[in-house]
Design goal:
The protein has helices at 8-18, 21-28, 32-46, 62-85, 102-113, 132-140, 185-190, 205-208, 226-234, 244-254, 282-295, and strands at residues 51-54, 57-60, 94-100, 121-127, 146-150, 158-166, 168-173, 192-196, 218-223, 240-243, 256-259, 268-275. It is an alpha/beta fold and 296 residues long. The protein has three domains: 8-85, Orthogonal Bundle (Arc Repressor Mutant, subunit A); 94-162 and 270-295, D-Maltodextrin-Binding Protein, domain 2; 168-266, D-Maltodextrin-Binding Protein, domain 2. Keywords: DNA-binding, Transcription, Transcription regulation. InterPro entries: LysR-type_TF (IPR050389), LysR_HTH_N (IPR000847), LysR_subst-bd (IPR005119), WH-like_DNA-bd_sf (IPR036388), WH_DNA-bd_sf (IPR036390). Belongs to the LysR transcriptional regulatory family.
C-alpha cells in the first residue's frame, strides 16, 4: 500500500488487545490523545471504523477483528525474529519483575538470593495487588513479567502452569494453657481466634480452604498477613491458621506449635501466570524454568 503508515499497526494491535486507549497509551509510553489520533489516522487510511464506544470503554468492530486476526501472528513472528537476533543470555544483566503473594515471596526470596543459575539476572519480587483485574492489567501491560499467586485465576490473555502445592495448619503458642498437641473440633471452637482474611475473596482462610461448614468462631482480631498472624498468636492464647510452608520457616522463631486442623481442608495450590505473547520468548521460557526449579 503506497503511503501507508505501518507505524500505526503496533498501536492498533495494542489497543485491540487492551480494549482501551488509556491502557494502550500506558503500554506504548504514549499519551491517550496520541493513541486516539493514531487510530483515527489508521481508520482514515483503511476507510473502515475499527472501534466503537461501549459503556466506558471501546469494542472492536468486525473489521478490527478481521484485521487483528490477520496481523497478530505476523507481527508476533517478526518481533520474535528480531528478539532472536540478540539471543538471551543469563550472563547479561537483566531484572525480571515478579508479582508474588505472601507464600510465594517467602518461599522464593532466599532461594533466589543464592541461586547461581540466575547468572547476572535478578528477580525483583513485588507485592501482589489486592484485586485480580489489576494483576491481569500488569501482565498485559508488561509491567510484570510473571505472577505467582493462588491458582484459579482465569483470563483469555493469560497462560498458566501449576508450581507449588501447600496445606493449611493450625498454630498456637507452645505455652498455651489448654492446648498441647492435636485438638478436636470442640476444643477448636471453644478458643478465640486470629483470623487470616484472603484479600481477594474477603473470606477467612479457614473457611476458604475447606468444604466443611464451620460454625461461628470467636474472632479476636483479623489480619491479612501470615507473619502478622504468627506474631499475634505467639503473644496470646488465640489460635491461627497458616500455610505449612510458612509455618516451617518461622514457627520455631515464634515458639509456636504446628498442629493438624480438626476438619478437612483443601490443598493450597499456587500457579505462575504470564501473558500468552511470551509463550515462545526464549528469555521468558528461561525465567519460567528457573522459577519452577526454585519453587520445587
Amino acid at each position: 500500500m503506497t503511503g501507508f503508515d505501518w507505524n500505526l499497526i503496533p498501536i492498533f494491535l495494542e489497543t485491540y488487545k487492551l480494549r482501551s486507549y488509556t491502557l494502550a497509551a500506558d503500554a506504548l509510553n504514549m499519551t491517550q490523545p496520541g493513541v486516539s489520533a493514531a487510530i483515527k489516522r489508521l481508520q482514515s487510511q483503511l476507510g473502515a471504523a475499527l472501534f466503537v464506544r461501549e459503556g466506558r470503554g471501546i469494542a472492536p468492530t468486525q473489521a478490527a477483528v478481521q484485521l487483528a486476526r490477520s496481523l497478530e501472528p505476523a507481527f508476533n513472528n517478526a518481533r520474535q525474529a528480531l528478539d532472536n537476533l540478540t539471543a538471551f543470555s543469563p550472563e547479561q544483566p537483566r531484572t525480571f519483575i515478579l508479582s508474588c503473594d505472601e507464600v510465594m515471596t517467602h518461599r522464593l526470596h532466599r532461594r533466589a538470593e543464592h541461586a547461581t543459575a540466575l547468572g547476572q539476572c535478578q528477580l525483583q519480587l513485588n507485592l501482589a495487588p489486592q484485586d485480580e483485574e489489576t494483576l491481569v492489567n500488569l501482565l498485559m501491560l508488561n509491567k510484570v513479567d510473571l505472577a505467582l499467586d493462588l491458582d484459579g485465576l482465569s483470563h483469555p490473555t493469560l497462560a498458566m502452569a501449576p508450581v507449588f502445592e501447600d496445606e493449611m495448619l493450625l498454630i498456637c503458642r507452645k505455652g498455651h494453657p489448654r492446648i498441647q498437641g492435636p485438638i478436636n473440633q470442640l476444643q477448636y471452637f471453644a478458643e478465640q481466634h486470629v483470623a487470616l482474611k484472603i484479600r481477594r475473596s474477603g473470606r477467612y482462610a479457614a473457611d476458604y480452604f475447606t468444604d466443611d461448614t464451620l460454625i461461628q468462631r470467636r474472632i479476636r482480631c483479623e489480619c491479612d498477613s501470615l507473619l502478622s498472624m504468627m506474631g499475634l498468636v505467639a503473644t496470646s492464647d488465640c489460635l491461627g491458621v497458616v500455610t505449612r510452608s510458612v509455618a516451617d520457616l518461622y514457627a520455631a522463631g515464634f515458639d509456636l506449635q504446628r498442629l493438624p486442623l480438626p476438619f478437612s481442608t483443601r490443598r493450597v495450590g499456587h500457579a505462575m501466570y504470564w501473558h500468552h505473547s511470551h509463550n515462545n520468548d526464549p528469555a521468558h521460557q528461561w525465567l519460567r524454568e528457573q522459577v519452577r526449579q526454585l519453587l520445587a
